[in-house]
Amino acid sequence: PVPPGVNLACKPGAQTGNRILPLKLTKLLRYSILSRDFPVMSTKRDRSMRLTTKGRYAVTALLDLAIHADTGPVNLADISQRQGISLSYLEQLFAKLRRCELVSSIRGPGGGYRLGKKPHAIRIAHIIDAVNESVDATKCQGKGNCQQGETCLTHHLWEDLSQQIHDFLGSISLADLINKSEIKRIAAQQDQRQELLLQPELDGARIAATFLQ
Description:
two-stranded antiparallel ribbon; single chain; mainly alpha
C-alpha cells in the first residue's frame, strides 16, 4: 500500500499539476517510504536476535569463576586477565550477580568471589536474567507495536521463538559447560598463558609459542 499523499509516479522533474517536484523533495519522500513507512526494507542492521556484550560477558565470567572455584575465592582481576574483560565492567556485572545470589564476595586478603550456588543449580538463563539481559527475536522488543503501533502478523511467531531460546538457555547449567571437553581444553590454555605472563623471566619465544597453540 502507498502512504497517503505520496505519488510514486512522481520522478525528479516530472510534472505534478502545474508544479515540478524538486529533486531534494523526491529523495526525502523516497527515504521516508523506505525507512519509516516500510521498515522491513530498512538498511539498518537488525540486532534483535543477538545477545549483547553484557549477557555474553556475564556468562563467560561466571563460567570462569566456576572452573576455578576449587582454588578458593577468585579475584576479578584474574578473570579480567584470562577473559579480556575490563575490570570495571566485571565489577558492574558481579554487583548484579551478587544481588541475585549467584555469587558471594569474600573480603580481605585472599578474597574474591565464590559461586552462590552449586554449578548444577545455576542455569545460563539465570545469569542472563540477573544482568537484565534478554534474547528477544521480536522487532518491537515484545511490546506488540511492530507495525505502525499495532501487532504485526508474525509477532507471536517471534515471541514463541524468544521463549524457546530462553528455555534452551534454562536447560543448560554451569556444570554442563564445565564438563565439556572443549571448554576444559580452552580453560587449560588460558591458565597456562596467564601463568607465563606472570613469569617475566621466561623468554618471549616460549610465551609466543603458547599463545599460538
